[in-house]
């Protein structure tokens, strides 16, 4: 499906929250604009101060970056601030059918806020994202295997695998003790996993850069409308972002647009088509 | 269980603010919070730390975060804060302490050592700032006091001596404190509070009657780095005024006149004597004659072509150079060095280097949007095993710390890196060179004004923005202007706080687009004295009240407030009618903004402390009063004889091929493992190079993305096709033979790299960064005249090359005292020039990289190969002294590049790479690794004799010569004819052919000489040597000096 030809995309309004050390606003806005959505970038402080900030924006994006420097733990300070000042509004947004996408620091934040995995009402943190097994930040492209049976609206039109840049130091998913992991597996709430050359999920470095069990690279809630992942779809915005784009150009296989757009397009299409 | 908190009287803890400068908070309570990873989960920090301590063989190791809340909160509130800080899934926390053996791994028997590392008083603790913010969020009110942070390591299985060694290994005593306790440990609530309750005092310095010895003692003891001539000029000035200077005035002059700020060596008239005794005078100094001279000549030459849109928008007078890019944007570029602080505290010094140069670009014109960073480091040999002079850190420890500092500074600021390189030489063990640079994109106009121009008017308010002032970085500017020795000041080291700066940068972008300020500059070297002193020249004066400046802790003297180099601060000029809007936006963005005074037209820089006079200096004396002292330079070419012919022949001779077939291949493999040639991908990927989504040709290219790119390319703005290209040249080893040749080689390589990737040849600009050993003759520097002559020759080569290629120098920096004098040993760096080129291309979709594309394509080398092995990697590898340094025929190279760029733009070139360090052999190895295709190369008689009158080269000389001016490229066979027609007159020679991958499915390189195969290697074999060792190997040898470990 062509991410640049979504019927009704121009009616889809997306809110991109910025500030506090977040830093992916430009590429996230450009990617959404390329798909044709109407994007508003707004400083978190202004959104917190405005009770109606989320109204009329069916897609809210928590972008990548280092909110408050990742001090204490990634996303921790930001998630707490959201919990105290915006938590209820975000819950109402999701209950009313709104979409939330968290990318990298945004994923860490909505996990620690308790929006994900979202198995029950209320903001309860039941999983976490912790330091990579190989300590430190790592920037490399990864291959993701997509679970086509997942309810996730962002990934349902993706091909079986997709390549994206990944760059983080705290991306290893850990679970509360108990059966939670099996519940998430059974309900297909793990839409994307790090994969090896054959497309099979992997725990092996560097195909899996953080040591996440089962290669888990993202999670969604049971509605499929709240989705977070560690890799950066918004940074595969142009075909020239791909590490092998020159070889693709010379071989005549260069795509017309960055393939990361497909993932954002899934969310926009889900809104436009209802 | 011992007490969980302490509210005992701990003396008054003062928090001063602009509104309440003299208010003190009563008692605060101290709570110690300890948070550990859930015992059944892996602890990645402990794993990495254990690897670092592997040589000590601990049987177990776990880490804990420690926060000392020194806040006005109740025990119940402290528990709420603990809950807010602890991850409910992955962590366990306690107020006071977790059990000593909490989380003991299997196999860890007995009681652990508990090693706690925290900061010394006054050291920037940005995590502490965030914890305080989180506590305020949690409790819903503003809090007084501070939070201090640290890490506790529980280490099992070490005897006492090894535990102490672990403590030494894991902390830097200049900035950190280590406490080693044997379980069971006592509870400790001491926090590293800084500051005191001293009254602000302004002292006068009795200069009037001082003799020369006294003047020098004042300069040396005060860390002023002023020479006798300068001290006398200051003395005379104040005698004429009929008074003595205040401490603040003397400090302000010392900062402003420092080598770091004033570039006195580049400004001085120089008498230069050639080896044959011929003497000439460079009256206008090196900067005006060669650097600005080159740029003015180039600007004049291109004026007719540029018309109304000159390429050079702003050069030399602002914080960074500005050149024209598109209809919407200019480009801003600056590269800085941060050498001295990085020698003392590699992490903090290097982080301050990167966030500091970010502020340079941020503070150019009315501000610019930061686009990408570059870095380059010169270190001592990482595997050095000898005895270091006391006071020096092992080069590997410096290397690790520098990388971590720039990684954290760049990543947390959301700025990708493009270029990164490392060079190693034993002479960098005394002072590492830490280059950090930033490219920014500046909108041509913002809020209806040309963004490149500051428009400060008298009456505009002086506003300090960002971090608070502490004693950190006091004397940084003067410290960097002297050699490193045992008395180097600890407080000269600052630690950056990237997140505070990121919030400042975001705020400035908003404020710029709203037109809320009329000018800005960063607070770097010299602090407020420099930033306000410089900005005061726009209107002709400024009046400020230093007592208004927000402090990190009380007890600073007015002169300290004036010259502190505390980080993350900008100084703004704000029109009075915009002040309220600016302050209101700053409050909303949680950025501290404080009016300190206003710009005037009085001709004077004046400072008071709550009304009391502190400083009153005429701007003319401050900026123009520095005496220009003539310097002498005398050039003598290096006298070291070449190695014996037999030794040379054993490496480079023709006979070698017969005696030891395949030995050239072994030399290539041995070269790839050398620190200067090996891949540092394992470090490079710790830096973000993808954020912003603009990358086109990344730092790492090729089928496996592990080969350093020839040049990098990125978009400058989203949804637009124009690209920015970055490349550099740095060749200190050529400088050992001739600095003129070094400068030519640096410009040539940087330009050549940019052209390979697709840069327009008429839109290149360059930056010069000189790092030199002290070139002023003195008792300590008996060879100063020679080193100054090396500098003169370097400048001559730089100007010649820039003019030949039409590449203006738009910004630069010099660091002139890179010597260490420790324990009677002097270590001076080799003269080092870095040339950084910024190029442009109209459409990134036409970019090229170095990877060969398809089997059947042809491989050419453009440009002749001469016998240029002087200063080469092979000469160092094989221990040879050779004199033939590449000299660069500039006119021929310029014509060649123009022809190449035209052929490239005609679509005839499929991939392109430079032959540089390591020569063609290494270039071909890179292409083999990147393409994972075969490369079949034939060394013909024509290749060995490119210039008819020259003596033929041997194959080894041909493959390892580092002749400049050469491009290796591939093309489709059908393009060969047209390429020959276009480039035949510029030294085009067929080198070979691209072929299918080998039986293992990977690339290979085969070089033949006639019927004989002289190199045959697979990409897998090359990669095995090229791939680096792990970042954290076994622990570095410890420096031979006592370090404090509290017991």
Automatic annotation (TrEMBL), chain A:
The lineage of its organism: Bacteria, Pseudomonadati, Myxococcota, Polyangia, Nannocystales. Keywords: ATP-binding, Cytoplasm, Glutamine amidotransferase, Hydrolase, Ligase, Nucleotide-binding, Purine biosynthesis. Pfam families: GATase_5. This is Phosphoribosylformylglycinamidine synthase subunit PurQ. One of its GO terms (molecular function) is phosphoribosylformylglycinamidine synthase activity. Gene3D superfamilies: 3.40.50.880. SMART domains: GATase_5. InterPro entries: Class_I_gatase-like, PRibForGlyAmidine_synth_PurQ. PROSITE patterns: GATASE_TYPE_1. Its EC number is 6.3.5.3. It comes from the Bacteria. It is an enzyme of class 6 (ligase). It comes from Nannocystis bainbridge.
């Amino acid at each position: 499906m062509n991410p640049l030809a979504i019927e009704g995309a121009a009616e889809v309004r997306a809110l991109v929250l910025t500030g506090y050390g977040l830093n992916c606003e430009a590429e996230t806005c450009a990617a959404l604009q390329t798909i044709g959505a109407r994007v508003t970038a707004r400083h978190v402080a202004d959104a917190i101060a405005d009770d109606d900030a989320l109204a009329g924006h069916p897609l809210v994006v928590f972008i990548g970056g280092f909110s408050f420097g990742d001090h204490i733990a990634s996303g921790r300070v930001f998630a707490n601030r959201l919990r105290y000042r915006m938590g209820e509004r975000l819950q109402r947004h999701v209950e009313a059918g709104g979409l939330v996408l968290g990318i990298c620091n945004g994923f860490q934040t909505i996990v620690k806020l308790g929006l994900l995995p979202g198995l029950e009402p209320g903001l309860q943190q039941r999983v976490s994202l912790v330091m990579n097994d190989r300590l430190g930040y790592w920037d490399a492209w990864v291959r993701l295997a997509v679970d086509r049976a997942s309810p996730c609206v962002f990934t349902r039109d993706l091909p079986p695998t997709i390549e994206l840049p990944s760059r983080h130091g705290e991306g290893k998913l850990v679970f509360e003790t108990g059966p939670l992991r099996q519940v998430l597996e059974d309900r297909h709430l793990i839409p994307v996993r790090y994969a090896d050359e054959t497309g099979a999920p992997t725990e092996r470095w560097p195909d899996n850069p953080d040591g996440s069990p089962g290669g888990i690279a993202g999670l969604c809630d049971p509605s499929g409308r709240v989705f977070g992942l560690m890799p950066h779809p918004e940074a595969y915005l142009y075909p020239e972002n791909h590490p092998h784009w020159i070889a693709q150009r010379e071989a005549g296989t260069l795509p017309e647009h960055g393939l990361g757009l497909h993932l954002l397009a899934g969310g926009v299409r889900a809104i436009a088509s209802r | 269980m011992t007490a969980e908190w302490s509210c005992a009287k701990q003396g008054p803890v003062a928090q001063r603010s602009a509104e309440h400068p003299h208010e003190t908070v009563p008692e605060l309570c101290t709570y110690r919070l300890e948070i550990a990873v859930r015992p059944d989960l892996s602890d990645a920090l402990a794993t990495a730390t254990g690897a670092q301590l592997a040589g000590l063989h601990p049987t177990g190791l776990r880490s804990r975060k420690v926060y000392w809340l020194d806040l006005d909160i109740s025990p119940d509130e402290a528990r709420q804060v603990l809950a807010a800080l602890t991850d409910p899934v992955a962590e366990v926390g306690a107020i006071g302490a977790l059990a000593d053996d909490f989380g003991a791994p299997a196999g860890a028997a007995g009681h652990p050592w508990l090693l706690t590392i925290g900061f010394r008083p006054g050291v920037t603790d940005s995590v502490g700032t965030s914890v305080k913010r989180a506590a305020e969020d949690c409790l819903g009110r503003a809090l007084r006091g501070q939070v201090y942070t640290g890490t506790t390591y529980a280490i099992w299985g070490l005897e006492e001596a090894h535990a102490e060694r672990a403590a030494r290994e894991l902390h830097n005593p200049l900035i950190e404190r280590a406490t080693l306790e044997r379980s069971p440990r006592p509870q400790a609530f001491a926090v590293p509070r800084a500051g005191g309750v001293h009254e602000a005092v302004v002292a006068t310095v009795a200069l009037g009657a001082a003799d020369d010895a006294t003047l020098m003692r004042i300069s040396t003891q005060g860390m002023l780095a002023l020479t006798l001539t300068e001290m006398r000029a200051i003395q005379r000035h104040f005698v004429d005024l009929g008074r003595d200077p205040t401490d603040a005035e003397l400090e302000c002059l010392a900062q402003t006149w420092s080598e770091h700020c004033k570039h006195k060596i580049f400004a001085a008239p120089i008498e230069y004597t050639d080896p044959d005794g011929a003497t000439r005078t460079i009256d206008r100094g090196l900067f005006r004659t060669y650097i600005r001279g080159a740029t003015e000549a180039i600007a004049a030459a291109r004026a007719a072509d540029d018309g109304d849109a000159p390429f050079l928008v702003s050069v030399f007078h602002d914080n960074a150079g500005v050149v024209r890019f598109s209809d919407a944007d200019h480009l801003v570029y600056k590269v800085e060095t941060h050498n001295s602080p990085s020698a003392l505290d590699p992490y903090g010094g290097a982080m301050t280097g990167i966030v500091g140069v970010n502020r340079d670009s941020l503070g150019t014109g009315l501000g610019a949007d930061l686009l990408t960073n570059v870095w380059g480091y010169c270190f001592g040999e990482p595997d050095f095993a000898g005895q270091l002079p006391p006071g020096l850190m092992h080069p590997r420890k410096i290397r690790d710390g520098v990388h971590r500092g720039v990684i954290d500074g760049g990543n947390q600021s959301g700025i990708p890196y493009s270029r990164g390189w490392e060079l190693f030489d034993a002479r960098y063990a005394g002072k590492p060179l830490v280059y950090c640079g930033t490219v920014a994109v500046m909108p041509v106009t913002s809020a209806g004004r040309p963004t490149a121009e500051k428009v400060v008017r008298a009456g505009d308010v002086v506003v300090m923005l960002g971090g608070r002032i502490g004693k950190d970085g006091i004397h940084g500017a003067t410290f960097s202007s002297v050699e490193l020795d045992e008395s180097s000041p600890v407080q000269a080291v600052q630690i950056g706080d990237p997140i505070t700066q990121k919030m400042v940068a975001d705020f400035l972008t908003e404020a710029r687009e709203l037109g809320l300020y009329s000018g800005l500059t960063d607070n770097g070297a010299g602090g407020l004295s420099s930033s306000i002193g410089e900005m005061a020249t726009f209107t002709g004066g400024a009046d400020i009240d230093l007592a208004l400046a927000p402090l990190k802790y009380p007890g600073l003297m007015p002169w300290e407030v004036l010259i502190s180099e505390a980080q993350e601060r900008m100084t703004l000029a704000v029109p009075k009618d915009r002040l309220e809007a600016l302050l209101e936006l700053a409050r909303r963005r949680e950025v501290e903004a404080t009016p300190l005074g206003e710009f005037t037209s009085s001709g004077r820089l004046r400072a008071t402390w709550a009304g009391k006079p502190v400083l009153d200096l005429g701007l003319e004396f401050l900026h123009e009063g520095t005496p220009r002292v003539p310097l002498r330079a005398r050039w003598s070419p290096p006298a070291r004889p070449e190695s014996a012919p037999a030794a040379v022949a054993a490496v480079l001779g023709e006979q070698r091929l017969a005696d030891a077939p395949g030995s050239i291949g072994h030399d290539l493999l041995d070269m790839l493992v050398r620190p200067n040639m090996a891949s540092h991908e394992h470090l490079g990927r710790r830096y973000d190079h993808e954020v912003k989504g603009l990358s086109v040709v990344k730092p790492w290219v090729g089928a496996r993305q592990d080969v350093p790119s020839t040049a990098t390319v990125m978009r400058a703005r989203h949804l637009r096709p124009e690209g920015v290209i970055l490349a550099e040249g740095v060749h200190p080893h050529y400088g050992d033979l001739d600095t003129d040749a070094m400068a030519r080689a640096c410009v040539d390589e940087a330009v050549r790299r940019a052209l390979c990737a697709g840069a327009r040849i008429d839109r290149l600009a360059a930056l010069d960064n000189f790092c030199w050993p002290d070139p002023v003759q003195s008792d300590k520097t008996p060879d100063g005249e020679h080193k100054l002559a090396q500098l003169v020759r370097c400048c001559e080569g730089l100007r010649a090359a820039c003019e030949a290629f039409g590449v203006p120098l738009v910004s630069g920096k010099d660091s002139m005292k890179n010597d260490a004098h420790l324990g009677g040993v002097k270590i001076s760096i080799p003269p080092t020039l870095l040339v950084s080129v910024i190029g442009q291309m109209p459409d990134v979709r036409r970019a090229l990289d170095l990877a060969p594309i398809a089997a059947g394509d042809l491989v050419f080398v453009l440009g002749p190969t001469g016998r240029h092995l002087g200063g080469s990697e092979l000469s160092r590898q094989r221990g040879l002294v050779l004199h033939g340094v590449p000299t660069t025929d500039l006119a021929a190279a310029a014509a060649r590049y123009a022809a190449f760029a035209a052929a490239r733009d005609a679509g005839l070139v499929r991939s392109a790479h430079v032959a540089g360090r390591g020569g063609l052999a290494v270039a071909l190895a890179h292409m083999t690794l990147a393409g994972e295709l075969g490369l079949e190369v034939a060394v013909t008689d024509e290749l060995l004799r490119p210039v008819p009158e020259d003596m033929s080269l041997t194959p080894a000389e041909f493959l390892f010569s580092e002749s400049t001016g050469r491009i290796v490229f591939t093309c489709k066979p059908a393009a060969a004819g047209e390429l020959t027609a276009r480039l035949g007159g510029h030294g085009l020679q067929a080198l070979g052919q691209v072929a299918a991958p080998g039986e293992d499915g990977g690339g290979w390189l085969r070089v033949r000489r006639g019927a004989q195969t002289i190199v045959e290697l697979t990409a897998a074999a090359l990669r095995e040597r090229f791939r680096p060792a792990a970042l954290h190997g076994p622990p570095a040898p410890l420096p031979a000096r006592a370090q404090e470990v509290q017991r």
